[in-house]
Design brief:
Distance between the termini: 35 Å
Number of helices: 3
Strand content: 15-25%
Largest sheet: 2 strands, parallel
Oligomer: single chain
């Protein structure tokens, strides 16, 4: 009979060839982040001095984290055929998802 403790040990002892693949079903999105060096003033137009584009979404973050451990990672989701979708696909490719 296999116990839960045996299963945990078996998962820890996997070699890369035996490692299970993980498939994540979840969201993908482009994070648009604006920064400003001064404190924001409520009700005023606050002008940022730096802008950043990042790949995000719960599903993407989980799939990228799994891939970073060396396990094969797959993500089921949907992206648009636009600059943001292309950016997300490039991020997933570079993260080995």
């Amino acid at each position: 009979m296999t116990t839960r403790a045996d299963t945990v040990v078996d998962l820890i002892d996997f070699t890369p060839r035996e490692a299970p693949a993980v498939c994540v079903v979840g969201s993908l999105n482009a994070d648009l982040i604006a920064y400003e060096s001064a404190a924001a003033i409520p009700g005023a137009y606050n002008v940022g001095d730096r802008f950043e584009l990042g790949a995000g979404g719960k599903g993407l973050n989980v799939a990228m984290s799994i891939a970073a451990t060396g396990l094969p990672s797959y993500l089921v989701g949907r992206v648009g055929n636009d600059m943001f979708g292309h950016f997300i696909l490039r991020a997933l490719t570079s993260g080995r998802v």
